[in-house]
């Protein structure tokens, strides 16, 4: 029996969703279905199961039984979602594969327009830490990846169920405090107010995209804008940098205040240029920007408490640029409590 079972495999570009029968993968399916419908793309549901390691020939028969049962169970799980997708008018295919689930989805992403996977932790902090499958796909995927966390939405008008993000300690604490330095314009749309969220970090109903001044991140911003258009949400471009780091600390407060505009100008210029470009490309969405004094990971992680979606680039390091997650994207994926769009990018 072949360890890979294909059902009407589509050779064109489509939306790949990793499925394992969990609540997180069901949420990933619903997100993938919405993307497929909005972009008029086929849906590819992928179920993978690991190969058992047998050390004795006595267990060969057991291996055959395991493969039969695993294939049957995975196909049954996938078929339950096929009718739902077809009922929405979306063409759907399924693949049942024996192999490492993370690596399987990485390979499947080669021919996909976008991949979607749930985030599932394996300890008491489940949902707050990145699982191995979502981590591998986000880091090594060949297409943009959407990582869906545990459901936590609250209809409360006073407090969020999502707790404030953990801050760094020790030497790293100095780069973690957040304060807004400049913004393009106040929000023009309505939003909920929360007692446990600072007003400048309240991105209720917005799609937030992290903009790095040292990168040509046009693909990240463009895809974030497409997501905002799909969700009918405003788009917020966000940059952050600890302005007192990298030998930029001034003992004289007056001297620091005089130098501050020069320190932040590259970031605000980049944000303004990107916002104007996106507004021309997507005239139907509202675009604004904010710049913070603080760590990018801290700002974007905190933004995930209220945002509809956070978008980041991978920004790998060294000779593996684009193949491994950078520190910011890794931290955001680990800590985020809203869906995260990860776009493969290269370090400039």
What does this molecule look like?
Helix 3 packs parallel to helix 4. The chain is elongated, with a radius of gyration of 22 Å. With 348 residues, the chain is of the alpha/beta class. The protein has eight helices and twelve strands. It has two domains: 4-148, HUPs (Rossmann fold, 3-Layer(aba) Sandwich); 170-343, HUPs (Rossmann fold). Helix 1 links the parallel strand 2 (14-19) and strand 3 (43-49). The protein has a twelve-stranded mixed beta sheet, sandwiched between helices. This is Universal stress protein.
Question: What is this entry, summarized?
Answer:
It comes from Nesterenkonia natronophila. The protein has helices at 23-39, 60-87, 101-108, 132-140, 218-231, 253-281, 296-303, 327-335; strands at 4-7, 14-19, 43-49, 92-98, 112-118, 145-148, 179-183, 207-210, 235-241, 287-293, 309-313, 340-343. The protein is of the alpha/beta class and 348 residues long.
Task: Describe the protein's topology.
Blueprint: E1 4-7, E2 14-19, H1 23-39, E3 43-49, H2 60-87, E4 92-98, H3 101-108, E5 112-118, H4 132-140, E6 145-148, E7 179-183, E8 207-210, H5 218-231, E9 235-241, H6 253-281, E10 287-293, H7 296-303, E11 309-313, H8 327-335, E12 340-343
Parallel strand pairs: 2-3, 2-5, 3-4, 5-6, 8-9, 8-11, 9-10, 11-12
Antiparallel strand pairs: 1-4, 6-12, 7-10
Helix pairs in contact: 3-4, 7-8
Protein name: Universal stress protein
Family: Belongs to the universal stress protein A family.
Domain UspA: 13-149, 207-344
């Amino acid at each position: 029996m072949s360890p890979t079972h294909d059902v009407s495999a589509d050779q064109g570009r489509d939306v790949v969703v990793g499925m394992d029968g969990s609540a997180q993968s069901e949420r990933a399916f619903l997100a993938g279905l919405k993307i497929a419908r909005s972009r008029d793309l086929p849906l590819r549901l992928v179920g993978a199961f690991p190969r058992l390691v047998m050390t004795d020939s006595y267990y060969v028969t057991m291996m055959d039984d395991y493969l039969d049962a695993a294939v049957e169970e995975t196909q049954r799980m996938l078929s339950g979602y096929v009718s739902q997708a077809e009922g929405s008018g979306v063409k759907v295919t399924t693949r049942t594969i024996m192999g490492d689930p993370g690596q399987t989805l990485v390979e499947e992403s080669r021919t996909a327009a976008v991949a979607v996977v749930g985030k599932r932790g394996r300890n008491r902090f489940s949902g707050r830490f990145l699982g191995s499958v979502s981590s591998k796909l986000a880091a090594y995927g060949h297409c943009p990846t959407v990582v869906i966390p545990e459901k936590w939405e609250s209809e409360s008008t006073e407090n969020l169920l999502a707790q404030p993000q953990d801050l760094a300690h020790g030497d790293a604490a100095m780069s973690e405090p957040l304060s807004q330095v400049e913004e393009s314009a106040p929000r023009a749309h309505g939003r909920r107010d929360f007692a446990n969220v600072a007003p400048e970090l309240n991105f209720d109903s917005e799609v937030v995209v992290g903009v790095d001044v040292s990168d040509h991140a046009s693909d990240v911003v463009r895809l974030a804008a497409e997501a905002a258009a799909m969700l009918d949400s405003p788009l917020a471009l966000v940059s952050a940098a600890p302005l007192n780091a990298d030998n930029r600390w001034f003992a004289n407060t007056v001297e620091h205040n005089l130098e501050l505009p020069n320190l932040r100008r590259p970031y605000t210029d980049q944000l303004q240029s990107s916002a104007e470009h996106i507004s021309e490309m997507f005239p139907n969405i509202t675009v604004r920007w904010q710049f913070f004094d603080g760590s990018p990971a801290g700002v974007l992680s905190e933004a995930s408490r209220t945002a509809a979606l956070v978008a980041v680039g991978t920004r790998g390091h060294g000779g593996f640029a684009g193949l491994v997650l950078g520190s910011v994207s890794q931290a955001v994926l680990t800590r985020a409590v809203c869906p995260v769009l990860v776009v493969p990018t290269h370090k400039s």
